[in-house]
Please model this.
Amino acid sequence: MIVLESNAKVILTDSGGVQKEAYFGRVPCVTLRNETEWVELVELGFNMLGGHEPERIRQAFEEIVDKGIPSDQDLYGGGKASEKTVSLLASLSEAS
Model:
């Protein structure tokens, strides 16, 4: 599933998990619901709510395709937490 998602141009889903996977894969997402638990993804333009009406879904799809998604934001960190932790612990052990 992850391979399919990462190679998609846009993902349409009603799944909360797939919305988050779309973000991590940097793939635009249209959520086929009227609300989402991942409001930050919508607020920052990674995801759009398409609801259940075909016309609204089409509009959300076209809009997210036209504008794309932000490429310079890491909402959940940059994936380097373990490296930073090891570096910090190493510096603390050297100081003692």
